[in-house]
Sequence to fold (378 residues):
Amino acid sequence: MKRKERLMATLRGEPVDRPAVCFYEINGLDELKNADDPYNIYTHPSWRPLIELAAEKSDRILMRGVPFRDAPPDPVEELTTRQTWVDDAGSLFTRTTIKAGKRTLIELTRRDRDVNTVWIIEHLLKDVEDLKAYLDLPLAEFGGTPNTDGVLQAEAELGDTGIVMIDTADPICIAASLFHMQDYTVIAWTETELFRRLLDRIAALLLPRTEAVAQALPGRLWRVVGPEYASPPYLSPALFRQFVVAYDRPMVDSIQRYGGFARIHCHGNIRHILDDIASTGCVGLDPIEPPPQGDVELKYVRERYGLQMVLFGNLEASDIETLPAAEFEVKIRRAIVEGTAGEGRGFVLQPSACPYGRVLSTTALHNYFKMIEVIEGL
Fold:
């Protein structure tokens, strides 16, 4: 089967010649762009063999967001200023300041040249009073049309080697990331109604945007990011239902109303919220991390939820970077056996994330090659 054909058949629950294997963020296309960007870690020669392997052998899933054309201006922008600077070590800092009534809200981020992430040094909201001031800011209105050019261009570049996955945060992802984790959890537990107001504010714009994109780009795979913020031990299953299911279910409904495939992304402990995740109606789940990073085996999820959901996983990123190839092969083979056992919609062998340092270790490189070797040997 062609790689695109294999992935689409998997999403539809149809027979495939072998399980698909995806390297998650590494797709062999995006890494080669912006070669002059000093923060692009993939320009280091150590990444080249993996980039080529992803392009030539993996079942490629490219993540893309969808911007909007002609959207009404966000009134909060008039109250916002941003400053950027680079320090002597080459780290890029961005300070965002919002005037919210009598309060000044400040967020500070840092991006280092050798690490592929953005660190939030100072979170925008520090306490309940900040949250109240934020909720009093003027609301943005929904409008405009989805700009589908990026998705369509990526699909053209992929051809029959893979598919595009539309990537979106859910309300709790956006809300929780406004706070330091310790402040978010305390406020979510103790100021439930106030936190729901924040989620409602975000959903008022996010839900119609999701509907519009799903209609403009029907039949695509989606990734909905954020539920892990409300997974145990951070919040209870009851709060997970309030903060995640209540908002993600309408997103899933929009996506799948137009023939799309909604995949919930949730790291960590999921055993006690699996019924709730399933209740969103989603038809995909990742990364299903094995113990000790998670709290449930892939076999358990396949047996109980495999008829509803395509399972993406369940290789831990830390194992890719630390295990000798022979030991990692054992985990690969176990994931394949458990992910395809009995009846189920489908399975995609995939790590939970990817290395994010500028220099890719030989151990990690060998383990990626081992994933392809084992899959192709089935």
